[in-house]
Amino acid sequence: MRDGGIGLVLGSLLPVALFYVGYRTLGFSAAVVIVLTWSALVFGWHYKRTKGADVFSATTFSFACVKAAAGLASQNTWLYLAWPSLENLVYGTAFFGSAVLGKPLLALYAQRLYPITREVRASDTFRQAFLVVSAAWLVGHGLRAVVRLYLLAHLPLEVYLIADTVAGWPINISLVALTTWYPLRQLHRAGYMAQAVALEPLDSVELAVEESAPTTV
Q1: Is the separation of the CB atoms in 105 and 90 below 8 Å?
Q2: CB neighbour list of residue 104: distance below 8 Å, 6 or more residues apart
Q3: Domain-wise residue ranges, the chain
Q4: Of 53, 83, 103, 124, which sees the most CB atoms within 10 A?
Q5: How far apart (Å, rounded) are the C-alpha atoms in residues 138 and 127?
Q6: pLDDT tens for the chain, residues 1 to 217
Q7: CA-CA distance, 20 to 183, in Å (whole number)?
């Protein structure tokens, strides 16, 4: 429970606080640099912990760099805060498109949670399960993008930063929970996995926060 709480604070709440304090005290450019530095630290921690960079951590950090560059070049706060909505659409489309092509990116995500043999990956059950999960991520990320833009257009900065962060938690946690449960359930029913395993709820929370942390603001 302690690790889940620490992950929630450091990964989801702290970047928002850093941006807001930096923005109010030092200005927009300084706030962007502070958040990018935090993203770099998160990426470095993940790289050291896993002894390498996977497609998710590398892509997330790359998006953070592009977003920071766009914000610094435009000096447009609205554009900077709206950028994660574009990231949501890119991620959702990539997940679903890769599943349609039979190479689901979310399978790499699931591989971090439980082992998947080559035989299982080649099965129709595996492909169909991850097609369903990938479609859910497309819908979820699309919803996240719309909610972000709506909140940004209607709320003052202080309220937006809090509301956007909180609004993302149920979506992210639900998608992670679905990814840890649904493919295992289908594979277990098909007889590929003798014993289904699932993450504890707090582990799911921590993993969702870890994946979404660099693009919180």
Answers
A1: no
A2: 95, 98, 127, 130, 131, 133, 134
A3: 2-215
A4: 83
A5: 16
A6: 444 445 555 567 788 899 999 999 999 999 999 999 998 988 888 788 777 777 777 888 899 999 999 999 999 999 999 999 999 999 999 999 999 998 898 888 777 666 777 888 888 899 999 999 999 999 999 999 999 999 999 999 999 999 998 898 899 889 988 988 898 888 888 877 654 444 444 444 444 444 444 455 6
A7: 39
